[in-house]
Structure formats: C-alpha cells, structure tokens
Write a structure and sequence with these properties.
about 450 residues; FAD/NAD(P)-binding domain; 7-stranded mixed beta sheet; 14 helices
Length: about 450
C-alpha cells in the first residue's frame, strides 16, 4: 500500500498531523499499538482533568456553606468517579475515530518499525504488513521514567498510569517528585482524603516555574496539610505488609500505603529501527529535528515528546501541523518563544514566555508588574481570591516577555498572555485594551499596568 505519509503514533501529535495531511489532499495511514489519542487522551491530560473536575465539585460542596448553601457532608463514590472518567475518554477516542473516517485516514493497530526512509513494517496480531510511503512521521511519545531503586511494581509503587486506574483512594500516598504530574496527583488524592507526602530533590516544588508562582503553590499545599520535603532524595523504596517504606538520603523513613513515581518521562524511541535507517539521536535518545520537524534522513519527520522540545500535547499538535504542511508542499516552521503551559491544581497555574530568573540569567533588563486576585471583584465573588498575575516586560522596549499566573481559571487567562508574547505586544497594548468588568481577565490588565506602577486597584 502506497501513502503520501505514514504516521507512527496516534497521539495529539500524530492524529493531528494525519488529519492535516488528509485535509490537504494526501493519502495517509496511522499506526498505533494502543488506542487513538495516545498518552494525553488515554493515560494523561484528559483522565487527570476528569478526576480533577470531580475533586472541584467535591470542594465546591465542601465550601457551599460560605455562600449560604447548606448541604450535608458529601460522600465520594470513587467507582463512579472512575467510571465517568472512562466515559469521557471513550467519547473522545470515538471522536477521533469519527474524524479518521471523515477524512479517509487508514488506522492500523500494531507495532511499527522503520525498514527504510520509505517503508514501514507493522506487526498487527499475527500479520506483518509492509507500508510504502513517500514520508514517515514518528510520533511515538513518552512513558513514565523509572529508577530501579524506587522499586516499581505497579501495585504499591506506581506511576501516573496506575494512579489513574486505582479502584480505591489510598489512605496515604508518597509522591516522589514534585513536578507537574506530582502536584496534580497531590491535589487530586489529597482532596479525596489521602495523606500526602511529597519528596523533591530541588529546593522547591515545580522547580522550572517562576519562583513567585511555585512558592505560592507550595504555601497553599502546606496549608492543606500536604507534607513537602525539598532538597531531598530517596535512596530506596521497599514493599512492606502495610504498603511501602521509603528510606531518604538522611536516613529518615517514610511509610505509606502507596508510592507514586513522578520523576519525569522517558522517550519512546526504542525498537523503531531508527539506528538502522540512520536517524540521528541526541544524548537523551531524542530524535534530532530542524524547525520544519525534519530529521537528518530525507522524508522522515519526528514530532511530540520524542524530539524533547516541550513535553506538552499542544506543542505536539503544533509540530504535527508543521510536519504535515511541509510534507504537502507548504512552507511551515516551529516557533517556541510563546508556548503556554498549565497546571491544574487549585489554584491553577499557567505560564508563557520567560521567567524573571531567566531574564536575569540572560542579562535582559526587565520591569515586573504583579497583581493579586484578592483585589479582583470577580475572584472575590467566586470565593477564589488566592493567587496573582505576574507580567515581565523588557525595560527598554516595554515588550511583554513573560506572564505567569496562579489563581482561578489561570489555564484560560493564559491565552491573552500567549497572544501578547507571540505577537510582541507591549504593556501599553494590554493596558489600552478595554477588559470587561467584572472579570478575572482584568487582573491581567492590572498586572500589566503595575509594570509602571499604574494599577488602579493594586
């Protein structure tokens, strides 16, 4: 079978690339060994957000009395929580399947391996299928990273994948690593009743974020009785009759019912035949690509986690569009200076552009404006006034270089900031734009105004 492109991997990079190729008139097949949607839809972004939605409803009921609504103590039916999560995932998977039929994209379930820059071999059950293609896109994603000393067994010592399919809320949970994944699960299971302990090697949780933002969440977690141990590593995790026992480098012992390993992700670049066809890899096993998502081998592209630029679904989708358009004869290239990222804790966190520390490291003179949601009428009305907006602008040009939020609906508010950074807008461009009242978005305008000390309510 001959195709304009064969896409290996049906996640948010792969399926988006396939649809765009089909929209532009190309014949395309997608090979995926599991379900369409990849990690994001089946084992990551979407199932976690479904659990978070349930937690948010629980918290709303718990706090209803503050609004004059008196209700009884809520009871969590965790089986139904998990069932709803599966229903959400299944609906979205079926949605992708519908789009494939609509665009006449062939879906082949199986494991793919490159035989050359124009041939892909697929093991599908007992059958071996040879696919011929003018172009190949590798979009195989990543998997949870593991360290042997942490004793992963899939039952008492788990990764994010098992954490999404638990049948009961653990009484206690040790979270190893306080990055995005660790913090979201701390929020989920902490609010569902588990005693949470987090161990992080860095000086603070979410070490890659702007320090003002990560400090705020760390204080919030501590208020909610989440135990956080930073600048600390775990030497060993052992299984016990009651669950697990973790031995820290200082000799301290932590016991819990389960331990969740959330120390990052490893790239799925093994057993694809990359070395055999000469695709160049980096030091971490990442596939090396240019801004057109081309590898060093003609006709072979790579997108998503395997290129190790940003491990974000929306970046994978953007890379997929770039690869697809280049394959179909259109000029396109990736830009990464305005990539938004979101963390769905409560309060939510969202960022785009550079942090204040990055500006200092690059010797970029900046002005910083901050505005607390406590002074925003909509946030107070919602009962979600915790958090802030931080705007970083170039001191010389007034161009917005970065925006960082922690607070209500931060994941939605970041869109305005991403547009500002992408288009090189100035602080004045934001402050001169009328923002509706009363809205949370006014806080972005006020933080921008505060870059020059001109916030009205700050």
């Amino acid at each position: 079978m001959n195709y304009d492109a064969v896409v290996i991997g049906g996640g948010p990079g792969g399926y988006v690339a396939a649809i765009r190729i089909a929209q532009l008139g190309g014949k395309v097949a997608v090979v995926e060994k599991n379900s369409l949607g990849g990690t994001c839809l089946n084992r990551g972004c979407i199932p976690t957000k479904s659990l978070i939605a349930a937690v948010e409803k629980l918290c709303a009921v718990d706090n209803a009395a503050e609004f004059g609504i008196e209700v009884g103590k809520p009871v969590v039916n965790f089986e139904k929580v998990q069932a709803r999560k599966e229903d959400v995932v299944n609906k979205l998977v079926k949605g992708i399947e519908f789009l494939f039929k609509k665009h006449k994209i062939e879906f082949i379930k199986g494991e793919a391996k490159l035989k050359s820059n124009t041939e892909v071999e697929v093991k599908s059950g007992d059958e071996v299928i040879a696919l011929q293609a003018s172009n190949i896109i590798i979009a195989t994603g990543s998997s949870p990273a593991l360290i042997s000393s942490l004793g992963y067994n899939g039952t008492t010592v788990i990764t994010s994948e098992e954490a999404l399919t638990l049948t009961e809320v653990p009484k206690s949970l040790l979270i190893i690593g306080a990055g995005v994944i660790g913090c979201e699960f701390a929020y989920i299971y902490g609010n569902l009743g588990a005693e949470i302990t987090m161990v992080e090697a860095a000086p603070n949780i979410l070490p890659l974020l702007d320090k003002d933002i990560s400090r705020r969440l760390q204080m919030n977690f501590k208020k909610k009785n989440i135990v956080i141990k930073t600048k600390m590593t775990i030497k060993q995790v052992k299984e016990t009759a009651a669950g697990i026992e973790a031995i820290l480098e200082n000799g301290e012992v932590i016991t819990a019912e389960k331990a969740l390993i959330s120390i990052g992700r490893q790239l799925n670049t093994q057993n694809l035949g990359l070395e055999e066809v000469g695709v160049a890899l980096g030091e971490k096993g990442e596939i090396l690509v240019n801004d057109k998502m081309e590898t060093n081998v003609k006709g072979i592209y790579a997108i998503g986690d395997v290129v190790n630029k940003y491990q974000l679904a929306h970046v994978a989708s953007s890379q997929g569009l770039v690869a697809a358009e280049n394959i179909m004869g259109k000029e396109a290239q990736m830009e990464y200076h305005a990539v938004p990222s979101c963390i769905f804790t409560n309060p939510q966190i969202a960022s785009v552009g550079i942090t204040e520390q990055e500006a200092k490291d690059k010797n970029i003179p900046v002005r910083v404006g901050k505005f607390n949601f406590m002074a925003n009428g909509k946030a107070l009305s919602m009962g979600e006034a915790e958090g802030m907006v931080k705007v970083i602008a170039c001191k010389d040009t007034d161009v917005v270089l970065g925006v960082h939020l922690i607070g209500p609906n931060a994941s939605d508010l970041i869109a305005e900031a991403a547009l500002a950074v992408q288009k090189g807008l100035t602080v004045k461009d934001i402050t001169n734009t009328i923002h509706a009242h009363p809205t949370l978005a006014e806080s972005v305008m006020e933080a921008a105004a505060n870059v020059h000390g001109l916030a009205i309510h700050g």
